[in-house]
Amino acid sequence: MENLIYLEEVDSTNTYVKKRLGELEDRTVVYTSRQTHGRGRMEHTWFYTGTENIYMTICLKPQGIFYQKINNLTQYMCVVLCRLLEKYNIKPEIKWPNDILIDGKKIAGILAETKFQGGKCSGVALGVGININSTEKELLTVLKPATSLNLLLGRSINRDDFLKELTDEFFKHYDDFLTIGFELIRDEYLEHTNFIGKRIVLNDEGLVIAGVAEGISDDGELILNSEGIVHKYYTGEVLKS
User: Cβ contacts of residue 130 below 8 Å, gap of 6+?
Assistant: First the structure.
């Protein structure tokens, strides 16, 4: 396994890594039992759902690569998570761009935050939250429908084993991803999406637009046809599908 840092409690593993990008080694994995201020995309809160879940951030320092490949890291992690969850004989779906659902209920979310200096990437904090050992009562604190791996399987999950499987799977093809980009995972990503061909409502930084999700571009953009006008989005939140 890569370099590991365990914190009993922290405000946010992403915040911890972002503050220490200069001193942490590349590929360091920071994880905790309790996040007091966990965050998701678009400043959403990642709700705390028990001590034996995955709250982690990987410190990455890719050098000499295009920004777009960094932007696609969340999608790469989505595919990695789907591969791992399928080993447990469950069927995950990707809610664009970076949530993982089981039967319409959220089991995992991803947040990548990049720091630039002088126009160059100095590091990425790639955060992942996964419900693997939550009670039904704990999941009731989440505002949206949520589920947990232990409830789906009817047994508890060893957090350390799951963490090792996840990081091993992530780094198995990480270098290939940095070279090839989204094209490496495009087919797998599309296989797991739950919205292609459907009419969706998208929130793009406050601008809400409805249309049909026609597909994903070679660069990982969402292709949205709204009243005959084709738009492409790297970021946003699907409100309805």
Answer: 53, 54, 81, 100, 107, 108, 149, 162, 166
Domain residue limits at 117: 4-192
Mean pLDDT, range 130-158, rounded to an integer: 92
Q: Which residue type is seen at 228?
A: G
Confidence grade of residue 241 (pLDDT, cut at 50, 70, 90): low
- β-bridge partners, 105: 102
d(CA 95, CA 93): 6
Domain CATH for 97: 3.30.930.10
Same domain, 155 and 92: yes
What is the distance between the alpha carbons of residues 61 and 42, in angstroms, rounded to a whole number?
23
The pLDDT tens digits of the residues spanning 20-33 come to 998 999 999 999 99
Helix/strand/coil for 148? coil
pTM equals 0.90
